[in-house]
Amino acid sequence: MIKRYVILLVVLFCSQTLLAQKVPAWGGGADLKDFSGGFSFSYVSSYYKIDRKPEWRQPYFDENGAKITDALNSISSDNSPGFAVGFLGRYRINEHLEARLMPALIFADRSVSYKYADPSQDQVKEVRATLVDLPVQFKLKSNRLGDYRAYLIAGLKYSRALGNKENADDNQAPTAKLLKTINGYGSYEVGVGCDIYFEFFKLSPEIKIANSFGNLLLRENNAFAAPINSLSLHTVMFSLHFE
Fold first, then answer.
1. I need a surface site. Which of 75, 132, 143, 147 has the fewest CB within 10 A?
2. pTM for this structure?
3. Which residue range or ranges hold the Outer membrane protein beta-barrel domain (predicted)?
């Protein structure tokens, strides 16, 4: 997927050489202002990086000594799709550098799969999440070539889950317990993009990756949290920004 977006950006960068010379588009004057705003739509793909405990394969017994699950064969997390909508606030530092504040609402569930020696016990635990993202980024821009300009981004963000899952499964059976994560965490982001100038606005397709800091796992004594030492989140986002 990432290769496709990189190829798309390369085509956009190079296509200017195939066009006849013309007066560059104004782009709504976004680059001429110290402050400007916009909005964005994003496709999100994410999965958990799982650090397992040394004894993670062992069967799980509850506090009364009752066997809840058989021995584990694997714990894994597949890519899960989602989407995001957000706003963009931009401050021009100089011709080639700007700062961006990009609050967004993220709808992106994740999952962790458990496979046991007894296949009838296999489970997929959904970690449902609606997040508020608060990224602060720096954008390093190339010289403008006609109606195109390439750029790199890097920054930090804080993500906060909406809703409280603390007591969501207190009365559930042991095998129906949820895998829970902490409500707030930080991440770093890096990416590439391209500004495309039109007469009255600027469109910026962009791809970036984000990796969380620290351990996202909410420690609980159940069959699904017990084999895991830590969780971290890896996210890929493809965005269209409009200014």
1. 143
2. 0.84
3. 74-216
